[in-house]
Amino acid sequence: FLLGVLVNVTCGNSSTTPWSPCSEDCGVGISTRHVETTVGCQDLNSVRLCENRKCVKDEEDIIQPMKKYPLNLYKHPKGHGCRKMQKMGQSRIRLGPCVSRRLYRPKICGLCQNSNINCVPSLSTTIQVEFLCPLNSGDPISFIEAGYDLWDNSWLDPIDQELLHSHNIQMENKFIAVQWILKCSCGS
């Protein structure tokens, strides 16, 4: 009530910025966007996980984007500067003690013929990934480490919830936004 008058404010989005580029050249990173709302409502910032390409380690164990390695391993379509998409096999996302509940078949960007240009997502969407986390384990995003890949295909076994329950390990579900790459192109 404001001076005896009921004030009913309806909040809605007035504008949304595009997602920022991934914060890392390779491996898991963060992408953000800003959502402006109507007057009298709180503006929002959205965060999602992203990965343009996998990282590899060079001879000195320094993490490098995959573009450093020979391009002649890949066939480029005639007239195209990059092997645009690399389809991965079944994978999960693992962030510290948290793991995605289901398996995914993600795509990542490939390599450009010109090593000074990055192959980056040109079309993507955002999916909500359900994670299974130990109770009170904190925010899964806090477990992100530079140089580690977002998609993990080393552990594909189904999650044995009966085993967790029998060991009195309490779990909770958490949902995290993740970039889902649909198309890549060579950009600057």
UniProtKB/TrEMBL annotation:
The keyword Signal applies. It comes from Phlebotomus papatasi (Sandfly). GO terms for molecular function: heparin binding; integrin binding. SUPFAM superfamilies: TSP-1 type 1 repeat (SSF82895). This is CCN TSP1 domain-containing protein. GO terms for biological process: cell adhesion; positive regulation of cell differentiation; signal transduction. It comes from the Eukaryota. GO terms for cellular component: extracellular matrix; extracellular space. Keywords: Signal. Residues 14-55 form the CCN TSP1 domain.
